[in-house]
Amino acid sequence: MSQAPLSFPFCEPPQVGQLFKVANGVHWLRMPLPFSLNHINLWILEDEDGWNLIDTGIGTESCIEIWRQVMREHQHEKPVKRIFVTHMHPDHVGLAGWLCRKWQAPLHMSRTDYLTCRVMAADSFREPPEAGMQFYAAAGLDQEQLDYYAAKFGGFGKMIKPLPDQYIRLQDGDTYTMAGHEWQVIKGTGHAPEQMTFLCPELNLYISGDQLLPGISSNVSVWPTEPESNPLQDWLDSCAMLKQRLPDDVLVLPAHERPFNGAHNRLDNLITEHHRSLQKLLEACTQPRCVVDLFKHLFRREVDNTVLTLAVGETLAHLNFLLASGKLFRTTDAKGVHWYQQQ
Ligand SMILES: [Zn+2]
Q: Which domains does the chain have, with CATH numbers?
């Protein structure tokens, strides 16, 4: 069956701090990010007695100022009653604690992301752990790159306001009535431990977080805390699951870029792209290769220090998938560097 191509019903995103009405009671709010990906989309679902927020923005003073401005313009109308966070990344969870305290509103999040986020925030003021140094040395990083990792360790917590000490657990299959309609919670994995997304069948809207973006392929990474993980399997399983559960004509409200139609088409694209990357890596491993050798086969852009841990993580996600499927094997040399080769 042929699928709808991607289309974008709204040409222009709203100005930072301005609400844009997507449907009755469903508003789109843009916040800036201090990265090359320079924005995030947040969603406000309006009830009679208050707002439900989905994602919060990064924990910077400038984003707090934007929230204050939004509140000044609208607080005479409605208080914030619930705060939902799709996943633990700082652009999504950064201001959750601040908003919860300001409005005395409960935080809703998956258990794994809430706890992982608190651990990572607490780690931010530690020395870089030996396990982390070994993990990146095993990928083939040189001393200058390892020093850069060590110097940057702990950046995560600096972008997040402290989380509340309590939260309400979101699970797949939960339902919430918001903006006058029922929203179903759908769990996706691979990009974050347990990313929670929201489907409203009546409005035919899907708030996708980073689980489904129209142009960006979300980072799927192996991290030093769980070096043998296989997040690409999780990601591909989630793509297949979403194809089953999402209507093809749903309007996707993603955390980055613009709302779009064409969910199935985009999911197929993501699956195909990862399989293409797996094939490229497999072909490159006719000789023993280490992670850094393989960047040029996976990334079009030069991998500089600023994206190094993401590039290592993403490459390892593909390598661990190939190890798990028995297509590659791995050896370790005297310096602790891992080498990958075709079976
Ligand atoms: Zn994310």
A: 20-284 (3.60.15.10)
Give residue 191 CA to ligand 1 midpoint distance, Å: 7
Model pLDDT, residue 340: 98
> Are 178 and 169 within 8 A, CB to CB?
no
- How far is ligand 1, taken at its centre, from the CA of residue 86, in Å? 9
Q: How far is CA 184 from CA 80, 107, 139, 172, 211, in A?
A: 20, 17, 40, 8, 15
In angstroms, rounded to a whole number, what is the distance separating the alpha carbons of residues 77 and 271?
44
Q: How far is the CA of 297 from the centre of ligand 1 (A)?
A: 24
- Residue length of the chain: 343
Share of the chain above pLDDT 90, in %: 93
Q: How far is the CA of 287 from the centre of ligand 1 (A)?
A: 34
Say whether pLDDT at 1 is over 60: no
Nearest to 87 by CA among 124, 120, 57, 55: 55
Lowest mean pLDDT among 77-81, 141-145, 284-288: 77-81
Distance 322 CA to ligand 1 centre (A): 24
Pair 93, 85: CB distance under 8 Å: yes
116-130 pLDDT, tens digit each: 999 999 998 899 999
Q: Ligand 1 centre from 126 Cα, in Å?
A: 23
How far apart, in whole angstroms, are the C-alpha atoms of residue 75 and residue 84? Answer: 19
339/242 Cα distance (integer angstroms): 35
Q: β-pairing, 26-32 with 20-23?
A: antiparallel
Residue 309 has pLDDT above 80, yes or no: yes
Q: Which residues surround ligand 1, an ion (CB under 5 A)?
A: 89, 210
Distance 116 CA to ligand 1 centre (A): 14
**pLDDT confidence of residue 2:** 59
H helical segments located in the chain: 61-74, 90-93, 96-103, 111-123, 130-138, 143-152, 155-158, 231-245, 263-284, 295-298, 308-324
Q: pTM value?
A: 0.96
Measured CA to CA, the distance from residue 154 to residue 121 in angstroms comes to 8
Alpha carbon distance 187, 193 (integer Å): 10
